[in-house]
TrEMBL record:
This is Aromatic ring-hydroxylating dioxygenase subunit alpha. It comes from the Bacteria. Residues 46-150 form the Rieske domain. Its cofactor is Fe cation. The keyword Aminoacyl-tRNA synthetase does not apply.
């Protein structure tokens, strides 16, 4: 006889630390609905980069579950966010993923809003109609060194201020806001969003699955169990890490790890890590993909500054380009992964950079990860699946993601 699926409360209560989550966390429509409400509806989400909104009137629309959010740069060059819903009868205002407008005009009855969200035109309304009470509904928005975060909750977590304060010195030297988008690629993974994040939070799988990515990554940077056989290699990596950090910090580039992934509501982690071989960029030869370096950099071999945020992003800042990833859930078994590559705004395609070379590593890696996530989704649906133990040497960040998720769901969903 079919069994009654366990409640979310029961699943959260019996989660075993150091182990993967039970199958309903990845399969259940009810759990997915709770994820949308309590995780994606009440936390800060990375959704875009400022170069997508280069000029006043530029906009980006982002779908989060059934909610659509409109990001726009106003006439004062501030980034604003609104619910993408007309205040007349609810029509979606901007259907395109990106574009440019003078004002925001509803396609249905032409109610018109300025870039600050104020209703400035509504034809055929009575004389006592108060336009000031029908402006667009705002969404919380904050920017961090060119990264744009939004929160759908009425009361957004205020600890984002700490994240901005602590990480801005790491990210700001790359001057992402002075970049342009060189490429953006969306892929749909046939898997639950948590499997996408778990896969990202470890490199246990990298050597066997990511030949392009591992060109520029130090093998012992993945985290290994110390043994007599690898002790010398691990020590060499530690020495390289320490020397690199000392050199970069002497250049004014903060590099040492900050990790609050499961310690705060707005959890994050950042660290600058050395890259192998040429040491310049995450490319097929570890050399820069763009000749025009970011910000005021004069040296190319600055490693890779990695920045992870809960619950939906990771980023790699290098001397020549920045690559950002946003994870947006579609259904219990479908997830959008949006990857954006940015280069210096004055870089010329075909002269300073080639898009194919710039995107080669992560296009290949994303496709490989898509396959891994999809095989995991198939596996957790098998009746034989049960939560397995994480490696404390290579999957520590996976455990921190799951621990953060369970903590937040216990706090908000029960």
């Amino acid at each position: 006889m079919p069994t009654t699926p366990p409640s979310l409360q029961a699943l959260l209560a019996r989660r075993r630390p150091g182990h993967s989550l039970e199958a309903p966390f990845y399969l259940s429509d009810a759990v997915f609905a709770a994820d949308l409400e309590h995780v994606f509806g009440r936390h800060w989400l990375f959704v875009a980069v400022e170069p997508q909104l280069a000029e006043p009137g530029d906009y980006v629309s982002v779908d989060i579950g059934r909610n659509s959010v409109l990001l726009v740069r106003d006439d004062d060059r501030q980034v604003r966010a609104f619910h993408n819903v007309c205040r007349h009868r609810g029509t979606r205002l901007c259907a395109a993923q990106h574009g440019a407008v003078g004002n925001i005009v509803c396609p249905y009855h032409q109610w018109t809003y300025d870039l600050a969200g104020t209703l400035i035109h509504a034809d055929h309304m009575p004389a006592d109609f108060d336009r000031s009470r029908h402006g667009l509904k705002p969404v919380h928005v904050r920017t961090l060194a060119g990264l744009i975060f939004i929160c759908l909750a009425d009361d957004a977590p205020d600890d984002i201020d700490a994240m901005l304060r602590e990480t801005a010195p790491y990210l700001a030297p790359h001057r992402l806001a002075d970049c342009k988008v060189a490429a953006q690629v969306d892929i749909i993974e046939k898997g639950n969003w948590k499997l996408t994040l778990e896969n990202n939070r470890e490199c246990y799988h990298c050597v066997a699955n990511h030949p392009e990515l591992t060109v520029s990554l130090y093998e012992y940077g993945f985290g290994y169990r110390p043994s007599p056989q690898n002790a010398e290699g691990i020590q060499r990596f530690k020495d390289t890490l320490a020397a690199s950090h000392a050199r970069w910090e002497a250049m004014g580039l903060p590099s040492r790890e900050i990790d609050t992934l499961d310690q705060r509501v707005t959890g994050f982690r950042t660290q600058r890590l050395p890259l192998d071989r040429a040491g310049e960029s995450q490319t097929l030869n570890a050399q820069v993909a763009c000749k025009k370096l970011l910000g005021g950099f004069t040296a190319a071999a600055l490693g890779g500054l990695s920045f992870w945020t809960q619950p939906n992003s990771w980023h790699h800042f290098m001397s020549d380009h920045v690559v950002s990833f946003a994870v947006l859930p579609i259904s219990a078994d479908r997830t959008l992964v949006r990857t954006t590559w940015c280069v210096h705004k004055d870089a010329v395609e075909g002269v300073d950079y080639d898009v194919k070379n710039l995107t080669a590593v992560w296009n290949a890696t994303n496709d490989q990860d898509r396959r891994l996530v999809e095989e995991s989704q198939i596996g957790v649906a098998n009746a034989a699946y049960e939560p397995g133990p994480y490696s404390p040497y290579t999957e520590e960040l996976v455990e921190k993601f799951c621990n953060w998720y369970v903590q937040r769901m216990r706090a908000l969903a029960l």
